[in-house]
Every structure is written in structure tokens, then in C-alpha cells.
Write the C-alpha cells for this entry.
Amino acid sequence: MIIEKRLLRNLDYPLLATVLGLLAVGLLAVYSATQPARLGGPGFNALVLRQVVGAATGLLAMAVMIVVDYRVWEKWTTPLYIFSLLLLVAVLVLGREVNGSKSWLYLGPLGSFQPSELVKVLVVVGLAGMLAEKRDLSTPRSLVLPVLFVAVPMMLILLEKDLGTALVFVGVLLAMLLVAGAPIRYLLWAIGAGVAASPLVFFFVLQPYQRARLLVLFNPQAYQLQAGYNVVQAMIAIGSGRLFGKGLFSGSQTQLNFVPEHHTDFIFSVIGEEFGFLGAAAVLAGYFYLIWKGIQIAGEARDRFGALLVVGLESILLVHIVVNVGMNLGVVPVTGIPLPFISYGSSALVSNLMAAGLILNVGMRRQKILF
């Protein structure tokens, strides 16, 4: 326990405060976006209560991730990976379809659980362990195993019809391979192959509603009464907030329910409308600090596993931030990816707080304790 007290002195308290600040903003935004007068569902109390319970659970999980030495997880990478695959298979067999995706397991009185959110963290832990041992990535053959490691859960998630979550793994894999020492030319070839194959994916892989979302990206107004309705309304909400915002509970787009899914996918529009440009900029500044500190922690990590672990977890958060904010602004296709620490949803919230705990853990143990 003496060692743990000394370790706590190295805890990055500004980073911890940033995470808690984003969490507080999220709870406030969900509180505003789920008034019973608008939202036709279980009601204000139930939704906010679920988010509060998710936040409490996530904070407990984050505390565990901070206390337990992150190097312990390196010994459990294989069991954790197998567990993640079993979770995804269980979803395909027992899960229920919600909004076109079969991503949820229902646990009776405990509510629902989206395994893919936890799987993202578990796969990063496993891939970090693999790449920490695999020093030579100079040949295409040496990249086969890491790619397959990520491709298997990614394909299972694609079978769940959750394209947005599956694509997160692409960003994570590229970032971790780059930091692990894979030649940049191989990664560029992979990106080029993906771009070249995009027409085939568009016409033969994507569902009609997914193709419509891509078309909306080029001209949202042309589809404002169809697939582009939510994007156009979100852009109106953010623009109407102007500099200082309309005030909490005072956003017309939010309170009159013009923006669909504004407590989940489009919660950034709530922030933009009710807190204005300054409020939205403050949230983005918090995210920037979170990513910047993560890069710093990865660079100062005491071992290769810790550095790769932070890079993978930061990649998850960065992809989510860019895609979610981008689709609220109409510059990225709508994929259903939540905004970290802010969007409604206990599964994503708990997983994101776990990731934050692991990042803080690596930073806290970046150097040996001196007595």
C-alpha cells in the first residue's frame, strides 16, 4: 500500500479532471435532451437514472483500472481475446436487433449490454500484447497475424450490421502498427487498397440506408426530408446556438425534438445549441487535451506494451470524437458512433472510462518508484 500511495503522486490529476469534466457535461446534456415532454420512451427519470448508474459503474471500473498494474493484463491477453470473441458470437446467437444493428444482449432486470464496446478495449489490450512481443514488422508476412487478430472481431461486428463500430478497428490497427514499427509504405498500400475497393463496397456490401447516408454527405439539403433530415436539423441546432448558446433547456431544436437521437448520436448538437460556440469549443478543447496527454503518456511509457496500449485506446477515442462531431457538422457520414463520455449509453460510457483508467495507469507507472 505504501507503493500505491507513492504511485498516486504520479497520477495525472489534470487529465483525470478533464475526463470527469467531460462526464459532467455529458450528464448535463443527457439531462437536457431527455425531458419527458419531448422524448417518447421510458421517460426522463429512467434515462437519466440509467446514465447515472452507468457513470457510477464506469467510475468504479476506471478506479480498478488505475489501481491494478496495467502490466498484469499483458499476461491475460489470450483469455481476454477469446472472451471478446465469445461475447460477439453470443450477440449473433442471442442478441436483438435495434435500429438495424444486432448489437445488444438483454440481461433481464439488469438491462441491455452492447458487447462490442467492451470488445474494442479488450482487442486493444490483446493487440498491444502481441505487438509488444513481435519486434520485427518489416515484412508483409509479419503483419498477417496482427491483421487477422483484428479482422476476426471486426468481421463478427460486421455480421451484427454495425459498420461504424467495425470501422473503428481499422483506425486502431493502423495507429498501433505504425507505432509498433510497421513500414509506412505498407500502411499506405493498405489505405490505397481500401480506397480502390470502395466502389465495390458501396454497391455490393453496404445496405441501402448506408448508401443513402454517404450520398447525404455531399448534399444534405437535397435529402433533408429523408436520410439527411437528422444531419440538417443537427446543423441548424449548432448554428442557432451562435456564440453563447440559448441556455440549458432552452434550445428549440433540442426541446421540441427536431433532432432525432439527440441524446445519443447527435448529442453534440445539444451542446452546440444550448451552450453555443464557446461551450462546444470548450468540449473540443477537453478532447484535444485528452488526446495530447495520451500521446505524451505513450511517449514516456516505461515499456513497449504500455505505449502500444495507450496508442490503441487513444485511437478508439479519437476515431469516435472525429466521426461523431463530424457527422453532427455534416462532414462525415452518419455511422451511429457515440461521443465519448457524453452520449447516452452505459456500455460505451463504462468502456470509455475503463480506457481512461488504463491510460492514467500507464502514465502513473511511467517510471520506477524511488525510495
In short: The longest strand covers residues 101-106. The chain has one domain: 2-364. The beta strands are 96-98, 101-106, 112-113.
